[in-house]
Amino acid sequence: MLSAFLAGCTNNTAETTASDPESKSMLTFAWPRDIGEMNPHIYNPSQLFAQSMVYEPLVGYEDGGELKGYLAESWEISENGKEYLFNLRQNVKFSDGSDFNAEIVKRNFDTVLQNAQLHSWLGFISKVEQTEAVDEYKFKLTLKEPYYPTIQELAVVRPTRILGAAGFPEGDDTSKGVAKPVGTGPWVLEEHKVDEYAVFARNEHYWGELPEVERIKVKVIPDAETRVLAFEKGDLDLIYGEGVINIDTFKQLESTGSYETKISEPVATRLLVMNSKKEQLSDERVRQALHYGFNKQAMVEGVTSGLEAVADQILSTNFPYTSDIDAAAVEYNVDKAKELLDEAGWKLPEGKAVREKDGKPLEIELMYNSTETIQKMMAETLQSEYAVIGVKLNIVGVELTTQVERFKANEFDLNFFSNYGAPYDPHTFINIVATEGFGFREAISAYPNKDELLEMIAKVPQTTDEGERQELYSSILESLQEQGAIVPVSYIKKIAIYQKDVADFKFPANRDAHPFTGISLNK
């Protein structure tokens, strides 16, 4: 995804501000960085949770992968899978009081399509042939070919959420900025001081149930320890997200009994990816040995203090099409690992600690994100465990950008990765597996059924039959895992810790969405 730094930042001042002690009920929480430009059609530096507060999709992603109508009450898909007719919700107003209708939906889609290359990661974008406002409350998308994930991809936070007419710049090219953040969502950006705070007020024009809390204040606090101190002082009502505070700190605060805590369902899977293009890893027996050769349960519990859960499947079963996956779980077994390495010809010479084959040592490099504590600790654990089975693991910490670049360039032996989560998976994950330049296609290059896998992956999005689609997903995900190049390690989860007077907190099903639906304060 490209970063777009847009002109015209907002520093709006409302008559009643968050700093006013007389202001009505306000929930305060911290975020590591500024909310960004609040443009629904671009990416960084705009923050996903903030965009989701102001802008809404046609379709929302709910628990268990259910797709629910938001600005579209319902939709109809043609038998050939190419036409999507959306019956739009009536009597919806934007936050400035203007009307929501099919014309404004078309205008939003057209500006996104005008910059299709910017959004090429989203599968349906390149397949759109035509947009049409059929009448005031009917909008039709016509695709060049069937693409079943279209509805699911409309649920993502960006780039297809709906901006009001007053938000469009001259010329309608929103990739260059928006005039102001006007949406149909439950919140309106009321005040914004860049890199310090943002205040969102309740949208009194909201078509749905009005939020209980009248204001949300987002304090920008980059440092995790400073966030915790602010929370303990009572300056924050809520800390929420992935990696927002140290796991040990979370556990310590939880143990006091002074606060409420919650842990989400899995939002993604932490994976260990093995590059089967590398000579040492081209043999499936070696890859399987490396899976058998570390105690996943002990590592996950030790490194994450039980916050993450051991992963037996590449994708957690709370994602669509994953409940029937039957890939066999691999149990920790040092003897089995040694046996597989012996069979593969990697023998341990007498008096040596590292196995050899044809005079070459079994030496492998694991790349990890140097700023990610969990990856670093897991890398150190694997290094120790693999030494027991005669494998020398060199661990190398690099910056995230370097990790991504090396992975895409096929310059790795082992690498940590996590899938994208809801609402992107499973289709986005298997798509990047099949796409050159993401690292996964290289990782599975030694699979004897690679060509068959790639054919199945290409076929999935074009299927209009649910049963056939489920069978394809099952075959693909089972085969990817069982041949050992993609090893599930743990299920990543979000945490929330909040003051006792915060009630009705719920994690959103969409990994990127805001968590404020239904939340209330009892101050």
Helical residues, percent: 25-40%
Low-confidence stretches: 1-23
Overall spatial form = globular
Strand order of the largest sheet: 14-20-13-19-17-18
The largest pleated sheet is described as: 6 strands, mixed
- Whole-number radius of gyration? 25 Å
Q: Number of helical segments?
A: 14
Strand content: 15-25%
The number of E-state strands comes to 23
Please give the alpha-carbon distance between the first and last residues: 41 Å
Structural class: alpha+beta
Mean pLDDT over the residues = 92
What does this molecule look like?
The protein is an alpha+beta fold and 523 residues long. The chain contains 14 helices and 23 strands. It has helices spanning 48-54, 102-114, 150-153, 224-233, 247-255, 284-292, 296-304, 334-343, 373-388, 400-408, 427-434, 440-443, 450-459, 466-482, and strands at residues 26-31, 59-61, 67-69, 72-77, 83-88, 128-135, 138-143, 187-193, 197-202, 215-220, 238-241, 260-263, 268-274, 309-310, 356-357, 360-361, 363-369, 392-398, 414-418, 486-492, 495-498, 502-503, 520-521. It has a six-stranded mixed beta sheet. It has a four-stranded mixed beta sheet with strand order 1-10-9-8, with no helix packed on it. It has a four-stranded antiparallel beta sheet with strand order 4-5-7-6, covered by helices on one side. α6 (284-292) runs antiparallel to α8 and α13 (450-459) runs antiparallel to α14. The protein is globular. 44% of the residues are buried.
